[in-house]
Amino acid sequence: MRMYNVLLVDDEREIRQGLRLKIDWQQLGLQIAGEAGNGQEALEWLQTGDCDIIITDMRMPIMDGVELLESCSRQYPDIRLIVLTGYDDFQYAHAAIKNRASDLLLKPVTRSELAGALGRVASELDQERSAQSERKLAEWKLSRYLEEMKEQFIQSVIRAYPGSSHLWPERVRLFGLNELAEQPVRFVAIGLPPAPEEAPEESGLRLPFELLCRELAGTTGSAPGIPVFREAKHPDLLFAIVPGDTAAVQSFSSQVADIVRSYLKQKALVMAGEPVQGLEAWREGYLSSVLAWYMSRHTQQAGAEPTRGPADPAQLAAQDKLKLLQRHLADGRKAAFEKLVEEELAAALAFSHPQFIKLIFQCCLAIEAAADAMGLALREKDEIWLDPERVWGLGTVSKACGFLYGLAEPLFSLKKGDSTREEPSIVEAMKEMIELNYMNDLNLSQIAEQYHYNLSYLSDLFKTKTGKSFLQYLTDVRMNKAVQLLDETPLSLSDIAELTGFSNASYFSTKFKKVFGISPSEYRQKDKNI
């Protein structure tokens, strides 16, 4: 039970002592925190004391009750005031009303009168504190929800989902990413070393590790902080988008390493990708941070030769050829793809083994990106990030070529029109796209065109696999998110409509009532009455 602090103000010590003994203060949830002999002493006490309620006389020397009430009204508007006076004087009543005193009691005050007045004030304070707690909780939930939506938006950008780029400016504004979208940034991959088998308890550090990194990113001094997100394909990594030059990235990386070492007694591996500018380049920046992290981890574990920097001639040449490789994948030119892969791998291996391994990873990322663009989910056994160490076992050009050719084969088969694509993969890709982009204007025609499907066939396939049409599934996801916002936030219907992909509040209300049988306003009121 919350105890409220009371300050007694009266120039007669006997009166103050009588008030102390008149009622059971603790039973009312109150405690006398201090006493003062006049208004000036009371104000001096308030400079250091914590007070919720003041009980004050009106006629006192030096500073009377009227002046005290006026000072409290200006300086301490949240303190409740109860006036005691031995004079039924209009001046005092007027002063009490003007300064919003909670009650005016005539001396000698009875036990029941004092207990009743204090009980009412304590009840008002309880209600105010409860409402304040509810507001803070709602604000916290809203901030967390918006943070989750911001991460979903970032994920949709780095995955380059079709049909959503025209909405990027609006989402950038909504999530406060204007500056990041315009200036050079670097994606930073952050992770802990794998937990050794003899210390399985270290695997439980993932949550505190994430909380520490998020807390640091939110208090870097840059408003609104450094965005941090996870990506399902790399569950053990956190990613941060750091603006500024190399010095800013190095400063953030050092802070992360220091705080993890200080609190978790672990050595975090923090690696930055290449600098990029503009949302269209974010995917490239993100992938370069993934590559840098896995390369660095293996180098540390194996004590291998450090990978050479971006100025290496071999690496610069490979970057140009990687773009050509991506075009071969997109166009279905299998022979050209295989020839280019073999030539570049041989050149990289001749330069250094780490450069050879890095090129294999880069090819894997290119194949993975092409598969995403076609709506083709790689089989779990082909997800190299589940076991990146096996790439380091590809010690020869022939082994590496065989691995990459096998990884790319489903894409070429799809381009040829062979029925090798597993139908559930496109459905799962569409469901994931909806989960990340329900607030956007999703269009089945755009998705069918992007993934090279017949529109009618894709529509029937989705309904067969999910039991719902694409539009019904999308509407259900949006409605579930809307219910969450109605339950957990004080947002207006217009804001909720915008955040859940509806064109306006009126259309949202119509769809909501059609689904749930009541309007959003009625739903929210019903929830409050339970």
In short, what is this structure?
With 530 residues, the chain is α/β, with parallel strands linked by helices.
CATH first level of the largest domain: Alpha Beta
- Identify the CATH homologous superfamily of the largest domain: Reverse transcriptase/Diguanylate cyclase domain
Spatial separation of the terminal alpha carbons: 24 Å
The portion of residues forming beta strands comes to: 5-15%
Detailed description of the structure:
It is built from 21 helices and ten strands. It has helices spanning 13-22, 39-46, 65-75, 90-98, 111-159, 168-174, 178-182, 206-218, 246-264, 282-302, 313-331, 334-351, 353-373, 397-416, 423-437, 444-450, 455-466, 470-488, 493-499, 505-516, 520-529, and strands spanning 4-9, 30-36, 53-57, 80-85, 103-106, 184-191, 228-229, 237-243, 269-272, 276-277. The strands form two sheets. Strands 2-1-3-4-5 form a five-stranded parallel sheet, sandwiched between helices. Strands 6, 7, 8, 9 and 10 form a five-stranded antiparallel sheet that branches. Helix 2 (39-46) runs parallel beside helix 3, helix 5 (111-159) crosses helix 15 (423-437) and helix 12 runs antiparallel to helix 13 (353-373). The longest helix is centred in the first third of the chain and has 49 residues, at 111-159. The protein is elongated, with a radius of gyration of 33 Å. The two termini are 24 Å apart.
Give the tags:
530 residues; alpha/beta; Rossmann fold; 10% strand; elongated
Write the layout of secondary structure elements.
Blueprint (H helix, E strand, L loop, with lengths): L3 E6 L3 H10 L7 E7 L2 H8 L6 E5 L7 H11 L4 E6 L4 H9 L4 E4 L4 H49 L8 H7 L3 H5 L1 E8 L14 H13 L9 E2 L7 E7 L2 H19 L4 E4 L3 E2 L4 H21 L10 H19 L2 H18 L1 H21 L23 H20 L6 H15 L6 H7 L4 H12 L3 H19 L4 H7 L5 H12 L3 H10 L1
Parallel strand pairs: 1-2, 1-3, 3-4, 4-5
Antiparallel strand pairs: 6-8, 6-9, 6-10, 7-8
Helix pairs in contact: 2-3, 5-15, 8-9, 10-13, 11-12, 11-13, 12-13, 12-14, 13-14, 19-20
